[in-house]
Protein 1
Amino acid sequence: MKIEIVKDDGFYMEFILKDANPAFANSWRRAMKSHVATLAVDYVDFYMNSSYLYDEILAHRIGLIPLSTNIDKFNFQDECVCNGEGCPNCQVSLRLNVEGPKVVYSGDLISDDPETKPVFENIPIVELYEGQQLMIEAVARLGFGKEHAKFQPVSMCVYRILANVVIQDGCTNCRKCIEICPKNVFGEKNGRVVVDDDFSCTMCMDCVNVCEENAIRIEETSDYVFSVESVGQMQVREIAKRALLAIKEKSQEMNKLLEEL
Ligand SMILES: [Zn+2]
């Protein structure tokens, strides 16, 4: 297997996974979504909430705010020395004490840990009007995307199979495929229809259906084009690496189980 990077701006990445199979490509995709730990607010204590939003709605909104932190310094609560009760090794508190009139943003959250803070400071939480007050303590812990979507490090993680488009003998250069293809896969060279860009092919099969001579063949390759967008807690490279480690760990666990049988 090989990886070829097409586009990488840190938080959005497009790459081709070469010579792989659907089982591995899909495992990797799922691992990036569900098996890479991130920190997110898990419960909120409300000391005062006279805003127009219910406690539950506010807690839900605060839970979805992505938090950047040094993930490796935290323990999972069920593996922590505190036995899940909560301590500085496994959780962080973020506080809010604000009065209206004011729009409360994610950037207003004051964290107990200097390394832990919202990725974006401009996510609106609630608008407070004159005389309204919000005083809360939000507690964040490590978790996985398989538990709740708020722990997912990716907002998008998809792949498609790279197509190999072939124009066979019998092509009459009728140009119908050029007109119908929504991705401009076909072009014209010296009066003949040629494949210009099969990287963009989404295998919609419009060209195959429109060709009266059955001269177009679309084959699946063993290459997978991934598009991954990070929510912001870590860069896509980091997410991809951590996902591979998770797959490795799970495979080793499986191996051990099989050997014991
Ligand atoms: Zn703890």
Protein 2
Amino acid sequence: MLIPYHRQILREAIGGKFSERALKIITDANAKQDYLRGQIGHDEYHFDNNAMAESYAYIEENRTQIHSALQNGDVEAAWTAFGRLTHTAQDFYAHSNYIPLWLAQFDTKSAPPASDVIHDDEEIIQSPDLHSGKLYYPLELFSYIPFIGKFVMPLLPKDSHAWMNIDSPKQGKIFDYTFAAAVKVTRDELEKVLAELTKEESILFLAYNSPHD
Ligand SMILES: [Zn+2]
């Protein structure tokens, strides 16, 4: 998903829960996953290349890091880990065919509004039909270049990231479902983190006591 949407999703999902300073640190860490260094060789950051188990493990790993950072009183490291974790959780809906599979149960005209999307349908999550886009380098890179892209697209298989991604509103109305699902999963991820923390750790993480931020 494109960085501006990751930012909007975070603000909409958890904006009211954190101070502006915390939200900025979370958002910057989330966005950084899409820098070049996080793009190459890191399928688990983005649910790319069918790295489902690895991506779930990466989310889990960051959740553990949040807890240990808070135990050490390092709240910034905890926010950074939360930023990384939310990036992966959000990319699931942009890079897999979860949303197309969910929408497939409705006639095109009877699909519920995007805000009603069910983001955690276990049947779809466990389905053998669920897969995510593969990165076919270097062709994938050329597909993003204006004018050249349209000549490259027919050369790329339909299971490529270039064909499958729902990274921006350029993909059409379907992006609204991706966005709404990503907002919902971000809230879930915050709940999961908080469930593992003591009261004191939660207060530190949410920075209730820093009105000056
Ligand atoms: Zn990404």
